[in-house]
Specification:
Blueprint (H helix, E strand, L loop, with lengths): L2 E6 L2 H17 L3 E6 L9 H6 L2 E5 H5 L7 H17 L5 E6 L7 H20 L2 E8 L5 H8 L3 E2 L3
Parallel strand pairs: 1-5, 1-6, 2-3, 2-4, 4-5
Helix pairs in contact: 4-5
Amino acid sequence: MGHIGWSYRGLPEFEGRVASFLAEGHARGERQVFIADEPKAGLWPRGLVERGDLLIFSTVEIYGAERIVDPPAQRIAFEATLAEALALGYTGLRVAADNTSLTSDPGRLEAWMRWEDEADSLMRTKPITGLCAFDRTRSAAATVQTLMGLHRPVDL
């Protein structure tokens, strides 16, 4: 599937629909990763989390308290997560992330745009499927339009 984008309206829609995206990865033997500002582990099947099939992270855990992405560092982190998954017998990674807060001001958006180029390069060469999601209720329409233009859109 590669690097895809989705814009949604409100966190309940994101959390509800992203479950099918991750379930598809589970069926393919991929390790799933869910990233959100305030992830709720209780939304997900307990067994998936306990076995490590589904990793759940907050945006701050992945991108730091400032939420400004460092593209080379993020590439290294994602490659390490992929290497661990492959060593454990998974076929790859499937990442679903609500990236809205990472694009919430001009500095963050600029850093995020650099990461998009790096992420495209990474996903072309590695078994990673990434879903970048952006909340239309918390972002300017022009920002969402720009971000969606960087991805192959998907309708979940």
